[in-house]
Write a structure and sequence with these properties.
Layout (H helix, E strand, L loop, with lengths): L2 H8 L21 H28 L3 H16 L7 E5 L13 E6 L4 H13 L1 H18 L2 E3 L10 E6 L4 E6 L3 H15 L1 H16 L12 H14 L8 H4 L9 H10 L17 H12 L7 E4 L4 E3 L9 E3 L13 H17 L3 H4 L15
Parallel strand pairs: 2-5, 6-8
Antiparallel strand pairs: 1-2, 3-4, 4-5, 6-7
InterPro entries: MTPAP-like_central, NT_sf
Pfam families: MTPAP-like_central
Organism: Caenorhabditis elegans
């Protein structure tokens, strides 16, 4: 992100009286708090959010080292397998949200043919002996090529995977045959590519989750994907949306579309085009959007409501006050298993709202320094 881009984003403005163009059903949200704040404090909000973006840019200057490691590992992995087998990047390695703590997550696809893939997935999920045999075979191929230091495969994990560390000390996780994370990674990437503010707002909210100590999927807390969906949901739900109905406008995101098309986009790392159909474009700054996001989610009852990937708020069908429900069309199973997630989200947005009300904008946009998982030897 260049300095010019940052200045362009911070200097955006908007009209409080802009017409509603959202197709979301979140009409019960009252934005009087954020609109009142903007009348008196928008310049101050923009000043401090600009400071956050500059700190973020400074911290991401070394991301190119992670990119080099990822490119090197992917090149090494291509030499381990027949061309029929594809290793598709997912998560931050694919969705344009790479950061200094990023690992490389991959999905191994043994077949291009859908019928063969379905047969493989049925055996892999239902037949433990087949699963262990196949994972051992892949692990032996990795060891034979000496591309890193591998653990024993995680045969019985909720998502079975092989984990190894590359020679350049990058953690690599390989899962098998799962199409859902491929589609969801392309969804997030499409949103990030559509508008530069999407990624910046995701980085800001991720920072707040880290600051609150509730971001760590390996410790059964929230994942970065959960934060991504919160932001993407909000940007489609507001009366004056930043994001259009992305899934509706992007046929490659439809679950009815051949998943090989999503694979092609993520493996070739090309650009994704989404037509801009907004009648009245949203020109709010990142700072203004952050305050409006707080206003929005502080009015959501996470105990009784669920959110979806299209900007809608719906009632939970099941009585489960301990879990946060995301209606995610890319996954058949629930994507959020964080214990007491509704309470954690409510507490977070309550705290952020207090900062807004008390005019603590410097604290609201304070950059929480990210810890690097693995020290870059090139630095």
């Amino acid at each position: 992100m260049s300095r010019g881009l940052v200045l362009k984003i911070v200097q955006r403005s908007f009209s409080l009286n802009s017409p509603s163009t959202s197709s979301s059903n979140a009409s019960f949200i009252d934005y009087s708090l954020s609109q009142g704040i903007f009348k008196d404090f928008l310049p101050k909000i923009d000043y401090h959010s600009h400071g956050f973006i500059e700190k973020l840019n400074e911290d991401l200057r070394s991301v190119h080292l992670i990119e080099k490691k990822i490119a090197s590992v992917r090149n090494d992995l291509r030499k381990c397998f027949d061309p029929e087998i594809r290793l598709v990047p997912i998560g931050s390695a694919a969705n344009l949200l790479l950061n200094n703590s990023s690992d490389l997550d991959l999905v191994l696809l043994p077949f291009k043919n859908s019928r063969q893939w379905k047969d493989f997935m049925k055996k892999f999920s239902e037949n433990e002996q087949f699963r262990m045999s196949y994972m051992n075979k892949i692990n032996l191929q990795l060891k034979a090529k000496k591309i890193g230091f591998s653990h024993d495969p995680y045969y019985k994990a909720r998502i079975p995977l092989i984990r190894f560390f590359s020679k350049r000390w990058l953690q690599v996780d390989i899962q098998f045959g799962n199409i859902a994370p491929i589609r969801s990674s392309l969804f997030v990437r499409t949103c990030v590519e559509y508008d530069e503010r999407v990624g910046l707002l995701i980085h800001w909210l991720t920072n707040k989750f880290q600051e609150a100590g509730i971001l760590s999927s390996k410790n059964l807390k929230f994942s970065r994907y959960h934060v991504n969906i919160l932001v993407i949901h909000f940007l489609q739900a507001i009366p004056y949306p930043v994001l259009p109905q992305i899934i509706q406008l992007s046929p490659w995101l439809s679950t009815k579309n051949d998943w090989n098309n999503a694979v092609k986009v993520l493996t070739r790392q090309g650009s994704v085009y989404v037509p801009n159909c907004s009648e009245v474009p949203n020109e709010q700054s990142v700072g203004a959007l952050a305050v409006q996001l707080i206003d929005y989610f502080s009015q959501i009852d996470f105990h009784t409501n669920a959110i979806d990937t299209r900007g809608n708020v719906v009632d939970k069908l099941e009585n489960d006050p301990l879990h946060f429900k995301i209606v995610d069309e890319f996954f058949a199973e629930p994507t959020c298993r964080v214990s007491e997630a509704p309470r954690l989200l409510t507490d977070l947005f309550k705290k952020l709202k207090e900062m807004v009300v008390q005019e603590k904008y410097e604290e609201l946009f304070k950059y929480h320094q990210l810890e690097k998982k693995i020290k870059n030897k090139e630095e």
